[in-house]
Amino acid sequence: MAESIFMGIDPGLTATGWGIVRKTGRKISYIDSGKIPSHASQRMGDRLNRIFEQLRRIAEEYHVEFCAVESGYVGKSAQSALKLGQARAAAVLAVEQCGIPVSDISPREVKMAITGRGSAAKEQVGYMVEHMLRIKFDKGEEDISDALAIALCAALNRMRDERMAAAS
Is there a catalytic annotation at residue 70? Predict the structure, then answer.
């Protein structure tokens, strides 16, 4: 039975969440997760380098084969969007340099894959991730929950693609 390792990344300058899942046939299981914190008092280059170096190390350590990063969300301000873009770029570059393909997944696509509703609340997504992976999150672990939701979405997309290929 084919096995694949997926990494999901929820980029951010305050905290970048990451999650790793394994897909074996039609089963998806939890491997590991965490977050890479930084503080606004740190130099921007140091913050981005920390994201880059840690994600590269994690991708290599877990032999990640596929990665998905949440696509940018422009909400509060253009300045916030630019900072998020920098964190996304550091994350994508880290994984791509390991030779791992990276796909963008929108927040709506993640919500739809995990809950069946593209407008689901963040708490609903977290609840479903806990249920699907049989894990429990502590308060304040939304970055990790979101990253695992992104990894799950990527694995589910892969399963769908495999079914479609087999049917044709």
Answer: yes
- pLDDT averaged per 10 residues, the chain (length 168): 92 96 96 96 96 98 97 74 91 97 96 95 95 93 96 95 88
**Marked catalytic residue, from 123, 143, 146, 162:** 143
**DSSP of 32-84, one letter per residue?**
EEEEEE--TTS-HHHHHHHHHHHHHHHHHHTT--EEEEEPP---S-HHHHHHH
Query: Which domain CATH number covers 75?
Result: 3.30.420.10
Let me know how long the chain is.
Answer: 168
**CA torsion, ordered 49, 81, 70, 99, to nearest 10 deg:** -40
| Domain span holding position 157 | 3-167
Give me the residue label for tokens 């502590």.
138
